[in-house]
TrEMBL record:
Signal peptide: none annotated. PANTHER family: SENSOR-TYPE HISTIDINE KINASE PRRB, TWO-COMPONENT HISTIDINE KINASE. This is histidine kinase. The chain crosses the membrane at residues 359-378. It catalyses: ATP + protein L-histidine = ADP + protein N-phospho-L-histidine. Residues 395-607 form the Histidine kinase domain. GO terms for molecular function: phosphorelay sensor kinase activity. Keywords: Kinase, Membrane, Phosphoprotein, Transferase, Transmembrane, Transmembrane helix, Two-component regulatory system.
Length: 610
């Protein structure tokens, strides 16, 4: 049989190899499709991130460009508000403005103001410009006391011209001008525009030399020349004077209060546009100069997210973020990330489709293996069936020919003996016994075929086991080829069974016990147990334990002791088990040894419905 199966096996192996190559190629195609889809998903995400990066950079540049005018004005005018603006020139922070004061412990400006107000200020011999300034202040004071408006104006202009010609220390210049303007505001009747210019807006010096700043701007510009105590004192005086002459003072007070104590902790070297995570955008100017703009980074990202949602570029749960924790980022390589559940859903969908396709390939491979295995088993069973059929035909032919030959031989011998007048009285019984054996074999074949095809419906009825044993004893007395002793330990219980089938079952067990036996007489014992169990025990040669289940197979025959062949069709025990199952019961080998075998038959007991 292996030689017969070799072509089938080769064909199956070649087919499976070809199928494996095809499935492997398909798997590579599916893997390539998954990678292409992933690349497409990454490309879309990168395109959105590039768009978000460009939009963010444009918004930052436009915001800073829009503040260019404010930066230029704030650089010249200390009263200009600079909310969120940054300017650094020659390594020094210009905006936001710093509170850079003189570190001296005393308050010279405050003390000089007090002496000027008390009239005790005296110039030293080497302080010519300061001495001249005091003289001009005295002329303004005299004109005010005389209430001479023209003289007051002329003496004040002379004082201003002196200020334009000589630059004095701020601790002298500003207190002296403050004292004069306070006196003018309190006693004189000077042109309002002139007072506004002197207190706030400033005046042209009239000599092409520049501009004379008003007190408010002058104090803010010269703040580094004063101690904190002087600055605070002068601020209060300037604010009071501004209020007296009707000059706005709110922005002056605001600029004085918002002076920063320390420079902003921003990068020193700015060679390209930078985004500082703390909330600043910086751009380099000429040299080491830097300008910048404070920004609400979360708000800016939220606005960009909203814009991209409105354009249909983001899902409702998508957002633009700046991942990582780098404190400083270049604008050209901002780590902008577009976060959205669509990416995860896309990845999951890709993986699901890939797993499904891979599973389909695995199922196809498994199905192919199963089909190949089934085809191989079917082919094997086919050849096995042919062998069994051949063996069955040979066995049955032999089993039928043997009793037929015996019957013919006995009949010829009987004829001869009768013709010769010899004694032949035992020959008819021998002929009957051989005919009974032949009939039993035919009955086994027909019964097995009917049960196997499902064409035998058992006629269930109450059957007494002691009656079955009695029938078995009579059958054995007339048909057994060897002496048989049958004993029984049965009660009067009834089984719910087909009597004809049970007789056939017991007869097959008994004939097997006679065939596989070397003792004389053959001893059989039938015993009933609880639960519908029946034990059938013989004193035969026994069944090896590995064969306990195989002996119930079709056409399976054990060899006799010393390997001798035992006659039979190999259907007896197979038919017995099928009869037991047809009744809803079981038949098995309960015990076996060289001293004999015990079969256990379990059948449902008959229970009366009355």
């Amino acid at each position: 049989m292996p030689r017969r199966l070799l072509p089938t096996l080769v064909a199956l192996v070649l087919g499976l190899a070809g199928l494996g190559v095809g499935l492997g190629y398909l798997h590579r195609i599916f893997a390539a499709e998954r990678e292409d889809a992933r690349a497409s998903l990454r490309s879309r995400r990168e395109a959105l991130e590039q768009y978000a990066r460009a939009s963010l950079g444009q918004a930052l540049r436009e915001g800073l460009e829009g503040a260019r005018g404010t930066l230029a004005a704030a650089k010249e005018d200390p009263l200009v508000a600079t909310p969120g603006l940054y300017l650094r020139e020659q390594g020094e922070q210009v905006l936001p403005r710093l509170a850079q004061f003189d570190t001296a412990g005393d308050a010279p400006a405050k003390e000089r103001y007090a002496r000027l107000r008390a009239g005790t200020e005296v110039a030293d011999e080497d302080e010519g410009p300061w001495s001249e300034r005091l003289e001009r202040m005295a002329l303004v004071e005299q004109a005010l006391k005389a209430k001479d408006r023209k003289a007051t104006l002329l003496s004040l202009m002379a004082l201003l011209q002196h200020r334009a010609r000589f630059v004095l220390a701020s601790t002298r210049d500003l207190p002296s001008l403050l004292v004069v303007l306070e006196d003018v505001a309190a006693r004189g009747d000077v042109v309002p525009d002139l007072m506004r210019g002197l207190v706030r807006d400033g005046l042209l010096d009239g000599q092409g030399g520049g501009r004379l700043e008003g007190l408010q701007r002058l104090l803010l510009l010269k703040r580094s020349r004063f101690t904190p105590e002087d600055f605070e004192f002068l601020r209060e005086k300037v604010s009071a004077l501004s209020a007296r002459v009707g000059v706005p003072v709110g922005d002056f007070e605001a600029r004085a209060r918002e002076l920063a104590t320390t420079p902003l902790p921003l990068p020193e070297a700015v060679r390209e546009p930078l985004l500082v995570r703390s909330g600043w955008y910086l751009e380099p100017l000429q040299g080491a100069d830097v300008r910048g703009l404070a920004l609400d980074l979360p708000g800016l990202l939220a606005g960009l997210t909203r814009e991209m949602r409105e354009r249909g570029l983001l899902e409702s749960d998508g957002r633009v973020a700046l991942p990582g924790d780098a404190p400083v980022m270049t604008l050209a390589s901002l780590p902008v990330a577009v976060e959205s559940s669509a990416w995860a859903r896309g990845e999951d969908a890709l993986e699901s489709r890939y797993r499904l396709k891979t599973l389909m390939l695995a199922l196809c491979a498994a199905l192919a293996l199963v089909i190949a295995a089934l085809a191989f088993v079917a082919q094997q069973r086919k050849y096995r069936f042919l062998e069994l059929k051949s063996d069955f035909v040979a066995t049955v032919s032999h089993e039928l020919r043997t009793p037929l030959a015996s019957i013919r031989l006995l009949a010829e011998t009987l004829e001869w003996r009768v013709a010769e007048g010899a004694d032949a009285k035992d020959y008819p019984s021998r002929i009957i016994r051989e005919a009974d054996g032949l009939g039993f074999l035919v009955e086994n074949l027909l019964s097995f075929n009917r049960i196997d095809k499902g064409r035998w419906a058992p006629k269930l009825a109450p059957v007494r086991l002691d009656e079955l044993v009695s029938h078995l004893r009579r059958d054995l007395e007339s048909s057994a080829p060897v002496p048989v002793e049958l004993t029984a330990d049965v009660d009067a219980r009834e089984l719910n069974a087909d009597a004809q089938l049970l007789r056939l079952l017991l007869a097959n067990l008994a004939r097997n016990a006679c065939a596989y036996n070397t003792r004389s007489p053959v001893r059989l014992h039938v015993q009933t147990l609880s639960g519908g169990r029946v034990h059938f025990t013989d004193n035969g040669t026994g069944i090896p334990k590995p064969e306990w289940e195989r002996v119930f197979g079709e056409f399976y025959r054990l060899s006799g002791r010393d390997g001798r062949e035992v006659p039979g069709s190999g259907l007896g025990l197979a038919l017995c088990r099928r009869i037991a199952r047809l009744h809803g019961g079981t038949l098995r080998v309960a015990d076996s040894s060289p001293e004999g075998t015990t079969f256990e038959l379990t059948l449902p007991e008959y229970r009366s419905t009355a």
